[in-house]
Structures are given as C-alpha cells and as structure tokens.
C-alpha cells in the first residue's frame, strides 16, 4: 500500500492581527484592515496515520540555560542619553540592545529631538561614536539644522541612506555606540518586495534592525510616522517588535512638546517628558508648570475673575493647570458655548450641573472655557476648578491667587475623590500655593504645610463665591 503525500499549499495571513484565510481578500475578516493579507506557504503534512506536522529536529542551544539569579545585569543597565527629560520617560536612559520607536506628526520636532540626543550622546561617550542615518533629508539639510541647534560634534557621523544593506555596511565600518534611523518608513530591504513605507518593507526593516541591536548590544532609535488618526503607521506588529514606543505630541500653535511613554520594557510606561521647541532647538522643561499658569506669582489685585488653578496628573507627573472661563450675556435663542483645551462633552455636563444643582443661571449667557499654554485637560479632577471658574466669571468675583482646587463632580452635584491628592498638593505647595479645596476623605495629610479645606458639594463652594460678591 503506497502512501500519498499532500503538497504544500498556500494560505493568507493578516500582518495586523494574524488572522488566516484560505484565499486572498481585500479586507481582513478579523481586524477589518485593508490590503494586509499576505501569502504564506503552509508546511506539508505527513501522510502517516497520525497526520500531524513534521517534527523539528533538536539543535544545539546558542547559550546554556542558567539560573535567573546568575544572569549578569551589566548588559541591561540604562545609560543616560544626555537629555534628562527623555531619560525620565525611558526609565533612566538607553539600554544596550534596546530598540526605541519615536512616533509623531510631521513637523512636531522628532528629528530635532533625536539630533540633540545624538550630539549629547556623542559628547558623553569616551572614544565612541554615534551614527545618524537620514532617509528623508539630504546630509546638507541635516547639517544646517545641526548648526542652528548647536548639535555639531566630531564623533557624530551622518549618512543619507535609504537602503538597509547600506546601513548595515555603515554599522560594520563605524561600529557606533548608538544608531538613529530617520525614519523607518523610508528604509527599504532588498530581500523583500514592496514599496517603501508599506507593510512588508517596514516589517522587514524593523526585524533586521532589531536583530542587529540584540546581536551587538547596540541601542537603536527609530523615527516613525503616524496616520491621520494618530496611530503609528505600518503594521501593528511594529509596536510588538520594538522595546520602547514613545509618542511625541505637540500643537503647531504652541511651543510645548511632550514625549509620552506608550510601551516600555525597561521602565514605567506612564511617564511624560516636557520640552519647549525654540528657534535654537529643543529644550527640556524639568518644571513646566509655569507655562500653564497665566497668573503665576500674581497678587489678589491683579487676578481677574473667571480663572482657577488645579493640578492634573499626566502619567506620574503632577502639573499645575489654569482653567479660564468667560461668561457674557447673549440675546440669541441659543447662546454659544466654545471650548479650547478641554473635553467639550464634559464641559457641557458641568454647565448643566451648575445650572441645576448650583443654581447658576447660564441659559441666557455665552460661555467660553479654555486652558492656558496649549495644555489639554481631560482629567475629571479638574471638574471643580472649571465649575468655580465659570461661577467666578458669572458673579464677577476673582478667586484667591494662592488657591488650588481639586475634585470630580457627579451629576448630583457631589464632589468625588480623586487619586494622588498628596502628590498634587505637594507640587502646588512647592510653587507657593497655600490653600486647597479637596474632596472629603482625601487623606491629604499635613505634610504639605497648606491649609486644606474639604468640600462635599458644589453648592458649598458656590455659596462662598456668592458671599464674596455680596
């Protein structure tokens, strides 16, 4: 009796979610992504009675297995990059062999930041070098930016390449201590088909650079593009391949830039670094609260109605933020509501709470609310501060300049607890604030030296504003 072997056949796998299909379709049935199914050959199955896959022969291990307590830590310790705010997000610095992906919108300052990192790293290395590979600009363009930002150094090497094999040749010849690739979507691998920036090419380039980093203990920084939805361009597997994913955020109308940790295998993934983009380059802001306070250091006589100060948590970092409100009378049937830097739906809810629970008449008034310094505040801990700002503008009464307000508002008008009250008040006390309004049972403690007043209902706070206006 003869055995008949079945030939290997092809299947199609999605590069985004891994879903497999027997035939090619334009849209993945699993994740609904377009054009992500690629052909893959399935291994031939044995014709034996068991019908299982062919067994893989055992090979010699590359390194012997050791007890986990005997594994050396020298190769996994972070080394400072020279930019303190970036090291804060990375968890102390760059780990040898780590692959970091920095993604952001066009023009936000990704290349400027990494050029600064390259210059600082080259200056801190003893006899080492840094290789900066650019695929989007010419070498002359990068040189002009380096002169403008003061990022020139004799051990910083620049190569304008878009071919992966050429990059590997530069690495073999130079043996750098840090590799920066700007950007991964512009690089191509000669071993795979596809256009630059496509799913196949981006994945192949990232796999090759990741293998290079792990093999040589070389930290690699990759610049990534984002789509119009704000997601990282390329296959979803790109974020799984790298060790660290950083999101570079910023408004084009503001000089503030934030590096936010999205994924970090070597440290916390909720840290935030603050930078300011200037004409001479990008500068870290270890104390950015002054950018978000228009009345920082103001006196009672100089404070105008309609402003309140709160403390928001951006990751692990407490930041003081000022919310402003302007209430103006209107003869229109539907008064206007304008919001800048805040969640419009949450602002509408707070206005309804003030109208119904706080008895603040707003139905015939236009209400404008905004933040200072281009900051975006979406945390519910700023609810009470925004409510006080609107009531202050309505009653034309300025709040004390040394007052900070914390609390989330419920639909019944109650003030709810928020997390990290002690850290928030410690930051406010460091900047000179002496009085705080907090939710009940906040366990604020007396270590900050501030006068802490607990409020349980929004009507209590509004009553104080009305008494001050009387």
Automatic annotation (TrEMBL):
A motif (RadA KNRFG motif) lies at residues 263-267. Keywords: ATP-binding, DNA damage, DNA repair, DNA-binding, Hydrolase, Metal-binding, Nucleotide-binding, Stress response, Zinc, Zinc-finger. One of its GO terms (biological process) is recombinational repair. GO terms for molecular function: ATP binding; ATP-dependent DNA damage sensor activity; damaged DNA binding; hydrolase activity; zinc ion binding. Residues 366-470 are annotated as: Lon-protease-like. ATP binds at residues 104-111. One of its GO terms (cellular component) is cytosol. Residues 75-226 form the RecA family profile domain. CDD domains: RadA_SMS_N. InterPro entries: AAA+_ATPase, DNA_repair_RadA, P-loop_NTPase, RecA_ATP-bd, Ribosomal_Su5_D2-typ_SF, Ribsml_uS5_D2-typ_fold_subgr, Rubredoxin_2. Pfam families: AAA_25, ChlI, Zn_ribbon_LapB. It comes from the Bacteria. Belongs to the RecA family. RadA subfamily. Plays a role in repairing double-strand DNA breaks, probably involving stabilizing or processing branched DNA or blocked replication forks. The middle region has homology to RecA with ATPase motifs including the RadA KNRFG motif, while the C-terminus is homologous to Lon protease. This is DNA repair protein RadA. It comes from Pseudonocardia halophobica.
